[in-house]
Write a structure and sequence with these properties.
globular, single chain
Length: 117
Amino acid sequence: MKKYTWHKQSIAPDLTVIDCPDHDPLKDFRRDPTGAYVLIRCDIENAMIEVAICDEKHTIVNAFRGRKSQDLYYTIFEYEKKNKLKWFSRSDHAAYLGKELKKAELALLEKSSYVQE
């Protein structure tokens, strides 16, 4: 077994290393049970990332705009919590939002096209 070292952390004697299988975004896709989903796009002209929250009827119920991925996901999660909404009941759904927002942020910085997975 490979010896693991980290910056200053000690390693548990019973450390388990889990090799992750490849994830297929189409085959392994699971919709959030709430039915909510997000649409993300870049407004390069105004240097903004836009996120639309859609419900199970495909209606945009809220929209958020910001320049950085972190600003957007913090605002979205705080809004969801404050208003007792249930848009992201699955942790992989929340992780997907963060991943896609970072991709959009990089596309915005590079003034290149962004395509949501």
